[in-house]
Amino acid sequence: MATVPPSSADITGLLHHWQQGDPQAFTELSNHVHQELHRIARRYMHGERCNHTLQATALVNEAFIALIDADVSYENRVHFFCLAGRIMRRILVDHARARAANKRGSGSENLAFTESIAILDDQPDQLLALDSALHALEQFDAQKADILQLQFFAGLKNHEIADIYGVSARTIERNSKLAKAWLHQAI
User: Which residues form the RNA polymerase sigma-70 ECF-like HTH domain (predicted)?
Assistant: First the structure.
């Protein structure tokens, strides 16, 4: 029997109760957040070989610990998962840097931008190039960089991102296409 995912209001309520010291809210929130982070991590890991050096569970555990330890007052579910996306991006980039340091001299290939980016274990330079390009895009258009980060690293859909910015999903889709085109030029 499939469990029904909690609503955004449920997660927001649990976040507020947890931050006020409710241990039961923390337990419920932990279960829901772990499920959602695993869903996101599985998307990253989809199509990767089974002996990949960074497993989805390790990514989730590291991100979850950082989220719990963060000295942040979470406003709502979206704010929480935006931070989760940033943390996962940092973990993945750190992992890619370590892998790249061991694999200097390998050739690079074109990087395809999709709604989520798989971990590129055999080609960490591509993830590093993406991170560098996102930093450059942040300087040029921070909102477009945030949109891509929310798609790639937080696993949010266009309608969820639209809710954050108070615009239509179509506007987010257009901005995402422009940002991806900019990234292709930068990489």
Answer: 9-186
> Other CB atoms closer than 10 Å to residue 28's CB: what's the count?
18
Q: What is the pLDDT of residues 82-128, one digit of tens each?
A: 888 888 878 878 877 777 766 654 444 444 555 445 444 456 677 78
Distance CA 129, CA 122 (A): 14
Find, among 7, 42, 18, the residue nearest to 163 by Cα: 7
Six-digit token string for 133? 């390009």
Axis-axis angle for helices 77-102, 158-165 (nearest 10): 120
* Cα gap 66→177, rounded to integer Å: 31
Running DSSP on this structure, what letter comes out for residue 7? P
Whole-number Å distance between alpha carbons of 43 and 131: 18
Neighbours of 7 (CB within 10 A): 10
